[in-house]
């Protein structure tokens, strides 16, 4: 069995993001059937942004979102998204998008959209001395090194090409070096439509793939038996500049704090030519588990 990958996996992701409209403010979406016990957080966040964005004038681009993961989602059941219009002003539109299953909220998000405007422009430089994505091991390379992970890898569609510059968080305990910085190259592994909302939703999806890993990286910890189990509690994203999610970007992440079974991670995303396109912040629940 080989995982769904490349354009086929991207097309499936696009189908997941293509919500069905029920009325002017209500949408429904499905999850891929991979055998997972709960819906991937980046998926429901991306879908919630799709729902919010479809109620906004397309000339207004999302510039920020703030979401809370309230309950685990059931991947075997559709998700209903209801969008509340908070405000439509001359420059900004604000929406609240709520995801529900079985009559209960599993996730809610506030998102803000802005008309294009010119103004002050600066950003801190991108990290230097970082190897190119072509020189970094792929996930398939890591699976070849740890074949016991092949079943899990093959069961999950690989719509995003993720390349860790260090070790990924799922290697066995003791195989990961402690590093206060985690850097990962990412791109959607196929062609996306030109719609900026789709690229923002795809980036939202990808932003949840590795951010909490930065907390574990600080301690050289790993996910699973002998390491840590966790779940996202909240997630925030700011979109600074135009980008394509199907082109390489560097996800430069650190963890400023971890305490009381919670870890905080910050991430900055840079294009290959060094443009700072987005920033993310996430807090997650992290609990140790025995071997």
Automatic annotation (TrEMBL):
Residue ranges of domain Acyl-CoA thioesterase 2 C-terminal in the record: 174-285
InterPro entries assigned to the protein according to its UniProt record, in alphabetical order: Acyl-CoA_hotdog (IPR042171), Acyl_CoA_thio (IPR003703), HotDog_dom_sf (IPR029069), TesB_ACOT8-like_N (IPR049449), TesB_C (IPR025652)
Spans through the membrane: none
Example GO molecular function: fatty acyl-CoA hydrolase activity
Residues annotated as domain Acyl-CoA thioesterase-like N-terminal HotDog: 34-114
Gene3D superfamilies xref list: Acyl-CoA thioesterase, double hotdog domain
Pfam families: 4HBT_3 (PF13622), Acyl_CoA_thio (PF02551)
Signal sequence annotation: none
Catalysed reactions, as listed in the record: a fatty acyl-CoA + H2O = a fatty acid + CoA + H(+)
Oligomer status and interactors: Homotetramer.
Name of the featured protein: Acyl-CoA thioesterase 2
Lineage: Bacteria, Bacillati, Actinomycetota, Actinomycetes, Micromonosporales
